[in-house]
Amino acid sequence: MPLETLAQVGRTAIAIGIYVFLRTVMCSPVRASQIAHALKLPRVSVVRRLEELIKHGYVERVGNAYRVTDKVNIPALALESLIAI
What we know:
Blueprint: H1 3-25, E1 30-31, H2 32-39, H3 43-55, E2 59-62, E3 65-68, H4 74-84
Antiparallel strand pairs: 1-3, 2-3
């Protein structure tokens, strides 16, 4: 995520984005209520931050759940972690 985007979305949105990313890696879209429960945040705040992440193109809504988009390049991240090892 570019630095200017990080400054716009804030720490809570970043934590939510990381949680959605991890659930996507596990092949499982996640509902806003699950994110709120896991991160101990109000569901309304989670939905608001998810909307910000959708606006920036990092998250998409799938029915009642959310997952990261192709803008978050999971295969490239996996390849980088393998190269680091």
